[in-house]
Amino acid sequence: AKVIHADAPGLEHGLAENVAAQVLAIASNYSHILFPATASGKNVAPRVAAKLDVAQISDITKVVTPDTFERPIYAGNAIATVQSADSVKVITVRTTGFDPAAASGGSAATETSAATADAGKSVFVGSEIAKSDRPELTAAKIIVSGGRALGSKEKFDEVMTPLADKLGAALGASRAAVDAGYAPNDWQVGQTGKIVAPQLYVAAGISGAIQHLAGMKDSKVIVAINKDPEAPIFSVA
């Protein structure tokens, strides 16, 4: 294993056109090119796959063989086993599907690569980054999420915030709660939100629609608080 390092002003902000060009510059040396299934990875990987004229394999959760992989479909209700005959595999990886690697102790050599020219197709204008003292949602070990059943933004804040403070947890929400204005968009957990797999996931007032379960059912321990004993959330809690 080795780390390939390229440094240029055009790469500073991770613009997809420039990062894709940098990957393509060394792609011929590799049989597999992997990206995390994050907003950034999903922005770059399709460009690389298209330029290489190969089919991208998305959101894998298991490597079966070097050319065969498993990935969730139908909001996680089924697992597809896919095999690629392409000479180069371009893959996005669902990071919650694999155990985290050690954060230290690596000994890979670092190799410098010539940076590609700026594509000039997009320009970084600025960013607005939400700042919080809480853990980042996708990296948190404990998450407490609230649903629409809490009734109002005031009740959501009254119930969920002290619980999160007590547990040192990140705050999440169902899509229904976000759509109702109880919580901001970046708290949404689910198929169209963030995919999480913490050690502990507490779902308060969340019925457990398929789309929500797809985003959190890989959590190690799931605690559901719900008045409806037939709520789908109890199928995974």
Quick summary of this structure?
The chain has helices at residues 16-26, 39-52, 153-167, 175-179, 210-216, and strands at 2-5, 32-36, 57-60, 62-65, 68-73, 78-83, 89-93, 109-112, 142-146, 170-173, 200-204, 221-225. It is an alpha/beta fold.
**Gyration radius, in Å:** 20 Å
What's the main sheet like? 4 strands, parallel
CATH C-level name of the largest domain: Alpha Beta
Looking at the structure, what is the overall shape? globular
* Element pattern in H and E: EHEHEEEEEEEHEHEHE
The end-to-end span amounts to: 40 Å
Identify the CATH architecture of the largest domain: 3-Layer(aba) Sandwich
* Overall domain count: 2
In the CATH hierarchy, the third-tier topology of the largest domain is known as Rossmann fold
- Helical stretch count? 5
Q: What is the number of beta strands?
A: 12
The CATH superfamily name of the largest domain is: HUPs
Strand order of the biggest β-sheet:
10-9-11-12
Report the portion of residues in β strands: 15-25%
What structural class is derived from the secondary structure elements?
alpha/beta
